[in-house]
């Protein structure tokens, strides 16, 4: 999926990624982003139906939240969130200027490799000296698409003059007994996630400083 038409079709039924059932994910994001978000001006990229806008960015001073899908944005607007403004926009065409924090949670990998490079260059250019947070799978590749690995992402950040302040594990890959046990432990105490080896991790969150 890349175009507005494709994402609108995917959003034909509400909540296509079943995010309303992802309460553990919400809890982990809230814990990790609380201090970064509180009282700040946020640009949330790929906001979809505004699930994280409500669940994670509620303490922000204001959130400008954009998505390529008009269907998703209509549902996001219907939430009536007092601190949020929702806009239909492709994030490669969105201005990145004037925000304290830009958040790209689980959306960059829909861009082609060339577009991803243009995206990071745009962040470096239009959001200099600020905070950028992004989350994505770090598994390299699966049957659906090619994702980053951790070392590839570190190289991308470095190439664009960005410094990683910290990163955190968000969840584990779903195969095998050790990861099932790790998932169970992490649900009781999410801090356990950061003790797990990289090979067991599915997604990571990065807090990055631009120069
Ligand atoms: C997997 S969903 C994640 C939604 C939300 N960030 C979350 O994690 O709950 C990815 C979202 O990115 C949006 N998206 C993908 N490519 C985009 C683009 N180029 N510009 C704006 N939004 C885009 C999709 O429409 C979709 O709503």
Overall geometric form = globular
Radius of gyration: 16 Å
| CATH topology group | Rossmann fold
Taking all residues together, what is the mean pLDDT? 94
CATH architecture, by name, is: 3-Layer(aba) Sandwich
Q: How would you sum up the major sheet?
A: 7 strands, mixed
Cross-sheet strand order for the largest sheet = 3-2-1-4-5-9-8
Number of strands: 9
Taken in chain order, the helices and strands follow as HHEHEHEEHEEEHEHE
Helix fraction bin: 25-40%
Please identify the top-level CATH class: Alpha Beta
Question: Can you give keywords for this protein?
Answer:
211 residues, alpha/beta, Rossmann fold, two-stranded antiparallel ribbon, 7 helices, 9 strands, globular, binds S-adenosylmethionine
Give a nutshell description of this structure.
The chain has 211 residues and is of the alpha/beta class. It has seven helices and nine strands; from the N terminus they run H-H-E-H-E-H-E-E-H-E-E-E-H-E-H-E.
Q: What is the topological layout?
A:
Blueprint: H1 4-10, H2 23-37, E1 41-45, H3 51-55, E2 62-67, H4 70-77, E3 84-88, E4 101-105, H5 113-126, E5 131-137, E6 139-141, E7 146-149, H6 150-159, E8 163-172, H7 177-188, E9 201-209
Parallel strand pairs: 1-2, 1-4, 2-3, 4-5
Antiparallel strand pairs: 5-9, 6-7, 8-9
The structure holds S-adenosylmethionine.
């Amino acid at each position: 999926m890349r175009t507005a038409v494709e994402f609108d079709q995917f959003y034909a039924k509400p909540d296509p990624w079943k995010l309303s059932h992802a309460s553990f994910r919400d809890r982990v994001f809230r814990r990790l982003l609380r201090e970064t978000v509180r009282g700040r001006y946020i640009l949330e990229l790929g906001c979809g139906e505004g699930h994280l806008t409500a669940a994670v960015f509620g303490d922000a001073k204001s959130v400008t939240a954009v998505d390529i899908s008009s269907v998703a944005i209509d549902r996001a607007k219907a939430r009536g969130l007092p601190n949020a403004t929702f806009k239909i926009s492709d994030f490669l065409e969105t201005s990145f200027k004037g925000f304290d924090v830009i958040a790209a949670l689980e959306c960059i990998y829909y861009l082609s490799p060339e577009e991803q490079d243009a995206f990071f260059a745009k962040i470096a250019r239009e959001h200099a000296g600020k905070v950028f947070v992004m989350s994505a799978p770090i598994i390299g590749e699966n049957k659906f698409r090619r994702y980053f690995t951790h070392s590839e992402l570190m190289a991308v950040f470095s190439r664009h003059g960005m410094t990683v302040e910290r990163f955190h594990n968000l969840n584990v890959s779903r195969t095998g007994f050790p990861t099932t046990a790790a998932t169970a432990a992490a649900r009781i105490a999410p801090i356990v996630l950061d003790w797990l080896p990289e090979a067991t991790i599915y997604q990571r969150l990065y807090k990055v400083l631009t120069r």
